Amino acid sequence: MTEADDVENLLRERLANPFLVLDVAPSASVAEIERQGQRLLAELAAGLDGARRYATPSGARARTPEMVRSAIAELRDPARRLAHEWWARGMAAAGAAAAT
Amino acid sequence: MGSGIHVGIDLGTSNSAIALFDGESVSVVANAAGETLTPSVVRIDGRGGRTVGRRAHRALDGDPANTRAEWKRLMGTAERLPFAAAGAALLPEELSAEVVASLLADVRDAAGFTPRAAVISTPALFELPQNHATARAGKLAGLEEVVLIQEPIASAIAAGWRADQQGTWLIYDLGGGTLDVSLLETDDGRLRVVDHAGDNFLGGKDIDGALVEWAAGALARSGAVDPRVDRATARGRGLLARLRAACEQAKIELSRAERASIVMPDPTGDGIEGELEITRGDLEALTEPFIARSLAAVRVLLAKNQRTADDVARVVLVGGPTLMPGLRARVGEMFGGRIAAGIDPMTIVARGAALYAGSVGLDATPAARATAPAAGLPVRIEHPSVTADMEPFVVGRCLPGAGQTVPDRVRIERVGDDGGWAGADSPLSPEGSFVLQVRLERSRRNKFVVRAFDRAGAEVPLATSAFAIVHGVSIGDPPLARAIGIARADDTTRVYFPKGTPLPARRTFAHHTVRPIAARSDDDALAVPIVQGESMRAHRNRLIGMLHLRGVDRDLPAGSRIEVTLEIDRSGQLATRADVPGTGQTFQDVAFVLVPTASVETAERELVATNRRAAEVQRRTFQLGIPAAVQSIADVSAVLADADRALPAARAGDADAAQKLHRLLMDANNALDDAEALLEWPDLDAEARRCKLTYTPMVAQWGTPAEQQLYEQELEAAGAARTRNDAADLELHLDAMRALGRAAYVRDPRSMADAIDWAAAHVTEAMDVAAAASLLDRARALQAQSPAADVAGGGLRALRAIVAEIWELFPSSPELQAKSFDSGIR
């Protein structure tokens, strides 16, 4: 179904939120983000199973090195980071609501 | 990074350079003539003998039919440049390959090895096909691996490398033909490019041109010779060429002395045809208007980023013209003298490229390929090559072979003159891996060794145990200069990579075919156009590649699902793949579209078309009376007037004028895009209101909780985009709202009846009327059997499946599809 694929495309975009991909809080410092990003890149390169998926409010999704690099770069830009923080907080609220 | 050597190449329009980085310091390699700059000039003689660099440069005036320079602007085009005596014609990337090969040979002579990999710099304005051609030049020259980096970023890296001070930097890069200004920040050892700006029509050539005009006038007034006459003749051109060379020489002398002579030799070179004196003051007066223009561009960049000159900690000057004392003084005045010292403006780009090669671990030495497996337990060790983090993570994984066991624990030790450092012993995970933090020494290359032990404490030999991490400035991956996406049949763009996406990048999205494809037919091909640009209207972006789905194993009906993956590597090479889950087939042959050749004929045709487009946009602008659009149109008029003025010189064979014309047309069309977007704002705003009214109740009633939450956020983001008048962002969120709204709507049982009624009324427009009529009969029969009350039953699911089939039989608008590069997907 086209409609279902459109929603899936949208989820692929929104659930690739850098904070979710890196598994860091929206309040994380620049240094924490960079360190976590480098750690995940190294884990993915070494083929560690735990690094290959990440948690989202709609279930676990695949994590790739490209997504991690993109997440680090997005959060280096203060303006883009603000937008991602807004989405991440909204999704965290959605996740909490779904859990109750 | 290991113990490798990293190579960076500045493949310039006028000159090229190559630099090496060994993990500690960067050095620029001199060519056989002992110069660090190699002119980007190639000569091919009658016997096919090839000369590159200074010797070829000397033949430029004397043997122009067999000598080529300044082809960089043609990279990515199919224009072959002829060499008359050899009867050869080379593509621009083939000429660039000659220069790269020459630079690599210089490294072989100086360092004893021929590099197998290198980073090559490209202008920030280059598009994907031009980058692709540059990477190909490297491969043709013998490089196995090529990574590209934008020139301003390379300069920034070289300037910011191991910068102790935090803060904002400004890179002022005045090249032969363009000015690039970049603002960057070093924050806690992390380098970030904040923004770029520039002037595409301001460079050292403008200054040279003004100097030549001044000298020609002075010589004419003195009665010696008038080089301004007969420019169309060979004699006139010869006169001017000699005057230009004399002025260039005088300009260089004025960098060191207060006065110099412009000495113009006669055609034989034995006598003097004219001579005059010039002071540094004369030159500064001539250059002042150009410097003022460049500083205006700097002010615009600072203002756009809410900064003042006082906020800039250091200014880095790049490019030959910045060697002029007058220019350095004027830039220094603006920034309180905070000009970075000790940076060679001519080789900084090559140095930055080499440093970047180090940061991505691109080892140029042949040993990098190496090979013989070492004794001991194989371990894969992963770590950053260069980092600002004093305590980065190191990850390892044991890969035991037959008869080998995983050790009990590991320890990482730093070896060095300071007595080193040793981390705590750490047990391995059940999968034989470890994740440990190490401690670095500041601003140094830190060497480590991994040691492993068994349960009894005996050391287990490892096949790989040593590695190095450099503490320095962390550099992000190179950002994509312009967005890349797929043009859909409804003339919208599915953005895969927004502008600024770090490379390498890869993304996959689901699409659907808009018409059937016949099995095993090479003639029946479905187009998947790949576009580059920021517009959500596909046709406003530039087509850069085309993937064709043809020769499918079995008939593929309209509406078939395809998963399209786009992947771009660090060298800007684009790979595209389409998977058809229905057949299990994969398509991946991308036809690359060449950038339009900057030929005068092409530009002339484009000028006519752009003038026509401008008139239409102007008519609509005044009809609707939108002030911002009126302002955009005013700018376009000025740009097109400039283009009109550049046309005669371009027609007369002036390559610079032709290039300027091409760039002006690009600018005019970009401004027209902006104006059109402004004109469409009222419609878009109305569409935003309509979407909200239509989809909000649908999602509230039929959406899943996750969809409802996502919809709320999209709605809020759309509202924010409306407040900011941000059309591009608003379109993205409306697209998302539509997707969520439609997904909810199809769950409403009444939507099936609506869809069937609509299809019945339009059945004659279906691509296959008989099939549509048959499906409609089936749908009506099912409706009769399963009344609307059977919402939860299988009847509705079956009805949905039939409606989906009917839906796919209706084509998208042929007009929109044609505009959208004949895209066959949505």
Plain-language structure description:
The complex is a heterodimer of chains A (100) and B (826). With 100 residues, chain A is mostly helical. Chain A is 69% helix and 4% strand. Chain A has a two-stranded antiparallel sheet with strand order 1-2. The radius of gyration of chain A is 14 Å and the shape is globular. In chain B, the strands form nine sheets. In chain B, strands 19, 21, 22, 23, 25, 26 and 27 form a seven-stranded mixed beta sheet that branches. In chain B, strands 1, 2, 3, 4, 10 and 11 form a six-stranded mixed beta sheet that branches. In chain B, helix 13 (681-702) packs antiparallel against helix 14. Chain B is globular and about 105 Å long. Classes of the chains: A mainly alpha (100), B alpha+beta (826). The interface between A and B is large, with 46 and 61 residues.
List the helices and strands and how they pair.
The complex is a heterodimer of chains A (100) and B (826).
Chain A: H1 2-14, H2 18-22, H3 30-46, E1 53-54, E2 61-62, H4 65-76, H5 78-99
Antiparallel strand pairs in A: 1-2
Chain B: E1 6-11, E2 15-21, E3 26-28, E4 38-39, E5 41-44, E6 50-52, H1 54-62, E7 67-69, E8 81-83, E9 88-90, H2 92-111, E10 117-122, H3 128-140, E11 145-150, H4 151-160, E12 167-174, E13 179-187, E14 190-199, H5 204-222, H6 234-254, E15 259-265, E16 272-279, H7 280-304, E17 312-318, H8 325-334, H9 348-359, E18 379-382, E19 386-387, E20 393-398, E21 409-415, E22 421-422, E23 426-427, E24 433-437, E25 445-453, E26 459-460, E27 466-471, E28 474-475, E29 484-487, E30 493-497, E31 505-512, E32 526-532, E33 542-549, E34 561-568, E35 574-580, E36 585-587, E37 590-592, H10 600-624, H11 627-651, H12 655-679, H13 681-702, H14 705-724, H15 727-745, H16 749-761, H17 769-785, H18 794-808, H19 814-819
Parallel strand pairs in B: 1-10, 10-11, 12-17, 14-28, 19-27
Antiparallel strand pairs in B: 1-2, 2-3, 2-4, 5-6, 5-7, 8-9, 12-13, 13-14, 15-16, 18-20, 20-24, 21-22, 21-23, 21-25, 25-26, 25-27, 29-30, 29-32, 31-34, 32-33, 33-37, 34-35, 35-36
